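help with this:

***
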Amino acid sequence: MRLLFLFTLSFIISTSFAQDLKSNELEQVQKDSVTTVVYSKYREDQFYASVSYVLMQGKPSGYSQNSFSTGLSVGFLRDMPINKNRTYAIAAGLGYSYYNIKHNLKVSENAGTKIYEQVSTLDFDKNKLVLHYLELPIEFRWRNSTAESHKFWRIYTGFKVSYLLRNKAQFYALDGADIRVTNNRGLNKLVYGAYVAAGWNTWNLYVYYGLTPIYEKEARLSGGQEINLNAVNFGVMFYIL
């Protein structure tokens, strides 16, 4: 988690630095009256990183989140302009996303059977569900960029399919007991959802709405109620060439 956070932070800093550097270099060239060759076939925003808060929807009765549930993602998108001015484009790519959901849903195992139960926050120190996804995003893009400027407004709407690589549920009891359940087959291997990223230059607001529950229908609470949790992310998205 710490390494992933440091990597994302470094990515964000390098994004801002790279874009400012390009703008400064262009200004210097113009001031020195040097002829500039403009590359008319430019592409925009082909690397991305996001940091978000994960809010669960479709919650069963008694379910609650605690602390800050984190969502992180990084990846590459191939920008493919579809008009002459290159202000409209389609982008498709490949990425990785990480979820750390902190809640009161305890997962345990007995003789190979997964047991799901909601417990009071007074009964544990920490309880989390960690998910690792391989994601395949595709976007429709609008921006008012030009070949001379790397600062512009953008609205990118997208859809992505995510494949679950690994998962871990971990319960830390107050008495020090540690219950771990890894690679639980009760979670959906494929989830998908829609998102939008909009903003100016480096900073963009990001919202993702999961259309698929993270748990399968067979995963139920001890009383028979479906868990049926969908992820909704609110955060910021960073892009770099």
Q: What stands out?
A: Residues 3-7, 11-35 have pLDDT under 50 and may be disordered. The chain has one helix and eleven strands.
